[in-house]
Specification:
By secondary structure, the chain is α/β, with parallel strands linked by helices. The chain is built from eight helices and ten strands.
Length: 293
C-alpha cells in the first residue's frame, strides 16, 4: 500500500487534473442534468387573490378562520453518494493506471462537480463487506478526504458483495440521492438489492475495466490468478481458441450486465484504464439531458 506522502501526491495530481476538466467542459452539463429532486415546503401565508386554491392549507384555514396557502420552493440541493468497490480485483491495471486509481479520479471529478454546484457528497467503500462510510457533506476539504480514503484505505475483504453494500446504503440514506456505483461488477447476485435502491434513489452505474481483462496477447504460457479468490490457472495464449474463449466469456458477462441495467432503467457506462473516461461521461450527461429535455 502507498505511504501517506504518496497518497497525498496522488490526491493533488487528481485535484489538478479534475479542476481543469470541471472548468472547461463538464460543469454546465452537471448543473443541467442533475437538477433539484423535488419541491420543499417553505411557509404558510395568507391567501391572496390570484393564488391557486389547490394550495390552500385547510387545517390552518379552519383553525384561524382566514384562508392560508402552503408555499413550496424547488429543492435544488442534491446529495451525491459514491458507492466505491475496493475488492482485490480493483487493484489491477495493465495500461495507464490501476482500476482503483481510475475509480478515485472519476469519484473526485464527480465530487468536485457536486460541491461546485453546492451539493453534498457522501462515500461508502465496500468489498465483501461495508468497509467505511462517510456521511454526505459539502466543501473541498471533505472531497479531499473522500479521495484520500479511496486511494489509501486498506480493505479487510478481498471479494465483492454488491448486495450487502446496496442494501446498507438503502437503509442509511434518508433523503432521495444520486448514487454512483463505481465497480468492475465482478458479482452476480445483487439485482434484488439494486431494485430496492432504485425505487428510492437515482442510480448510475460506472463499470471500471482494464483491456487485459477482455483480451490477452499471444505470449505463450501464462499463469492467471483471480485476485479475489486466489485461484490460479495456467493457459497457453498462443492457442487462438483459448484467447477466443476468454473473449467470448467476457462478452457474455458484459451483455448480461447491460441487460440487467436496461431492465431496471439504470444509466450505465463503461470506462477503461486504457482510454480517457471523459467521452463516456459526456455521453452519459448528454443522454440524461436529452431525456430531461
Amino acid at each position: 500500500m502507498p505511504t501517506a506522502k504518496e497518497i497525498w501526491a496522488k490526491v493533488k495530481k487528481i485535484q489538478f487534473k479534475t479542476d481543469r476538466l470541471i472548468n472547461s467542459v463538464l460543469c454546465g452539463q452537471y448543473a443541467s442534468v442533475f437538477k433539484g429532486v423535488g419541491i420543499e415546503f417553505e411557509e404558510v401565508r395568507l391567501y391572496q387573490p390570484g393564488d391557486d386554491i389547490r394550495a390552500i392549507d385547510w387545517n390552518v384555514t379552519a383553525r384561524t378562520g382566514k384562508p392560508y396557502i402552503k408555499r413550496y420552493v424547488e429543492e435544488r440541493e442534491l446529495t451525491v453518494m459514491l458507492l466505491v468497490d475496493l475488492s482485490a480485483s480493483q487493484y489491477f491495471g495493465s495500461v495507464n493506471a490501476l482500476k482503483s486509481d481510475l475509480t478515485a479520479e472519476i469519484a473526485a471529478l464527480l465530487s468536485f462537480l457536486a460541491i461546485k454546484n453546492n451539493d453534498q457528497v457522501g462515500l461508502l467503500l465496500f468489498s465483501d463487506c461495508c468497509e467505511k462510510y462517510l456521511p454526505p457533506q459539502k466543501g473541498r476539504r471533505h472531497v479531499l478526504r473522500v479521495i484520500r480514503e479511496i486511494l489509501g484505505y486498506r480493505p479487510s475483504g478481498k471479494k465483492t458483495d454488491l448486495a450487502a453494500a446496496l442494501g446498507y446504503l438503502n437503509t442509511i440514506l434518508k433523503r432521495r440521492s444520486i448514487v454512483f456505483i463505481l465497480s468492475d461488477f465482478f458479482d452476480t447476485r445483487f439485482e434484488k438489492a439494486l431494485q430496492g435502491l432504485k425505487r428510492r434513489h437515482d442510480v448510475i452505474a460506472i463499470r471500471i475495466e482494464d483491456p487485459r481483462e477482455e483480451s490477452l496477447p499471444e505470449i505463450g504460457l501464462l499463469c492467471l490468478q483471480d485476485l479475489e479468490t486466489g485461484y490460479r490457472t495456467m493457459i497457453d495464449t498462443s492457442e487462438k481458441k483459448v484467447r477466443a474463449e476468454i473473449q467470448a466469456r467476457v462478452f457474455v458477462q458484459r451483455k448480461k450486465l447491460e441487460r440487467l441495467f436496461r431492465k431496471n432503467k439504470i444509466d450505465y457506462i463503461t470506462v477503461s484504464t486504457g482510454y480517457s473516461y471523459l467521452e463516456p461521461l459526456q455521453k452519459l450527461f448528454l443522454k440524461r439531458e436529452r431525456r430531461i429535455g
